[in-house]
């Protein structure tokens, strides 16, 4: 699938790092480095604007390497980029470590996964079909 993209970042377009990777690495587009204090969050621009086809979305997901090495997560993970959004893609990073973390221009801060989704309509009813699980959840089958 081809996705129209405006790239104002000055960096190469996001790439799959391996042949069958699901995510395309997103890079920070920053004039100055941004320092995230412990528990601080910041909306980091990418310089990219997309035209996702109708029936698809793009998810902004954390990078596990940044998470395990530096405690960097995404507050609204996964962020949702709608097909009708024409603004810049931004990443809401959060520093979940005890140390400050510096985000620099060009750094790979997140990954973008393009996925199909359904557009549904509701069918209001009074009862739902019976199942083995019923209303059980949150460990109803046992924990561990
Ligand atoms: O991590 C994200 C999440 C969202 N967006 C952009 C694309 C998305 O289409 C738009 C709106 O996002 P969302 O629907 O999550 O925001 P909302 O809080 O529900 O606001 P709105 O009322 O604008 O829908 O913001 C990003 O750039 N990065």
TrEMBL record:
<feature type="domain" description="dUTPase-like">
    <location>
        <begin position="12"/>
        <end position="142"/>
    </location>
</feature>
<dbReference type="GO" id="GO:0004170">
    <property type="term" value="F:dUTP diphosphatase activity"/>
</dbReference>
<dbReference type="InterPro" id="IPR033704">
    <property type="entry name" value="dUTPase_trimeric"/>
</dbReference>
<feature type="binding site">
    <location>
        <position position="76"/>
    </location>
    <ligand>
        <name>substrate</name>
    </ligand>
</feature>
<feature type="binding site">
    <location>
        <begin position="63"/>
        <end position="65"/>
    </location>
    <ligand>
        <name>substrate</name>
    </ligand>
</feature>
<dbReference type="InterPro" id="IPR036157">
    <property type="entry name" value="dUTPase-like_sf"/>
</dbReference>
<keyword id="KW-0479">Metal-binding</keyword>
<comment type="pathway">
    <text>Pyrimidine metabolism; dUMP biosynthesis; dUMP from dCTP (dUTP route): step 2/2.</text>
</comment>
<keyword id="KW-0546">Nucleotide metabolism</keyword>
<feature type="binding site">
    <location>
        <begin position="80"/>
        <end position="82"/>
    </location>
    <ligand>
        <name>substrate</name>
    </ligand>
</feature>
<dbReference type="InterPro" id="IPR029054">
    <property type="entry name" value="dUTPase-like"/>
</dbReference>
<protein>
    <recommendedName>
        <fullName>Deoxyuridine 5'-triphosphate nucleotidohydrolase</fullName>
        <ecNumber>3.6.1.23</ecNumber>
    </recommendedName>
</protein>
<keyword id="KW-0460">Magnesium</keyword>
<keyword id="KW-0378">Hydrolase</keyword>
<comment type="function">
    <text>This enzyme is involved in nucleotide metabolism: it produces dUMP, the immediate precursor of thymidine nucleotides and it decreases the intracellular concentration of dUTP so that uracil cannot be incorporated into DNA.</text>
</comment>
<dbReference type="InterPro" id="IPR008181">
    <property type="entry name" value="dUTPase"/>
</dbReference>
<comment type="similarity">
    <text>Belongs to the dUTPase family.</text>
</comment>
<dbReference type="Pfam" id="PF00692">
    <property type="entry name" value="dUTPase"/>
</dbReference>
């Amino acid at each position: 699938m081809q996705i129209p993209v405006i790239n104002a970042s000055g960096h190469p377009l996001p790439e799959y790092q391996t042949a069958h990777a699901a995510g395309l690495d997103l890079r920070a587009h920053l004039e100055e480095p941004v320092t995230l204090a412990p528990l601080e969050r910041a909306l980091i621009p990418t310089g990219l604007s997309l035209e996702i086809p109708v029936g698809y979305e793009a998810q902004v997901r954390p990078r596990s390497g940044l998470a395990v090495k530096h405690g960097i997560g995404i507050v609204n993970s996964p962020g949702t980029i709608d097909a009708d959004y024409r603004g810049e893609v931004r990443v809401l990073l959060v520093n979940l470590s005890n140390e400050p973390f510096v985000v620099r221009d060009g750094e790979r801060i997140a990954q973008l996964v393009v996925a199909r989704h359904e557009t549904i309509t509701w069918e209001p009813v009074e009862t739902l079909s019976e199942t083995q699980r019923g209303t059980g959840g949150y460990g109803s089958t046992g924990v561990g």
